[in-house]
Amino acid sequence: MPITLTVFAASPDEGRGLARDMGVRWALEEAGLAYDVRTLSFAAMKQPAHRARQPFGQIPTYEEDGLILFESGAIILHIAQHHAGLLPDDPEGSARAIAWLFAALSTVEPPIIARSMAGFTIRDKPWYGEQIALLDDQLRVRLTDLSRQLGDAPWLEQAFSAGDLMMIVVLRRLAGTGLLEEHPNLAAYVARGEARPAFQRAFAAQHALFVASREAN
User: Fold this and answer.
1) What is the pTM of this model?
2) Residue 175's pLDDT band (boundaries 50, 70, 90)?
3) Rounded CA Rg of the chain
4) End-to-end alpha-carbon separation of the chain, Å?
């Protein structure tokens, strides 16, 4: 049975490659794995059929030979552990790459999401500017630490890994804020990830789905 991903029928990211299936698509492309997609509307995502795959009614889900997974980080880790190309061969290197995957989701992403959500939830409040400044300062702490760790290296460890993939997916959410550009090595790091052929293929596939949905409507 082919791998099947459940994705947005009409992604709210407007084709920018920010929907949660982007990282999974990228991982599959890096591993050289073909996959099919099952598109869902927002209403269908909340129905029992999908909740049987994803208890929280979100995307993506991953199905392969009877295995059903949810949460993009868990799916990427599964792909990396079962297919070559996303984890180092040595156990210690592999463990460190996995640590970076968790760091992307648990340490770096939360302040990015908090800042992003503020733009939707409190933009009309008189204290919006003060709150954004506070969120930016908190985020700068994380970015400074990450920048220091990366230094002049191309990747977080010896070679590109699932940890880099997840970190770059997370950092891409800062596009347009100017915060990433405060650390030229991080901006270059993201650009290197986006230049990888596997990323380009994944982005094109996700973007094509968005374009088709827009044209259909």
Assistant:
1) 0.93
2) very high
3) 18
4) 32
Tokens of 140: 């700068």
Q: In which region does residue 151 sit, left (phi positive, over 0), alpha (psi from -120 to 50) or beta (all else)?
A: left
Q: Which residue in 94, 96, 116, 89 sits closest to 170, CA to CA? A: 116
pLDDT in tens, 100-125: 999 999 999 999 998 887 776 666 77
CA 62 to CA 208: how far, in whole Å?
20
CB 100 within 8 A of CB 161: yes
The Cα–Cα gap between 2 and 96 comes to 30
* Phi and psi at residue 30, to the nearest 5°: -60, -35
Task: List the structure tokens of 45.
Answer: 């995502």
Distance CA(33)–CA(200), nearest Å, equals 15
Q: How do beta strands 3-8 and 35-40 pair?
A: parallel
Which residue type occupies 186? L
- Whether residue 180 contacts residue 143, with contact meaning beta carbons closer than 8 Å, is answered with yes
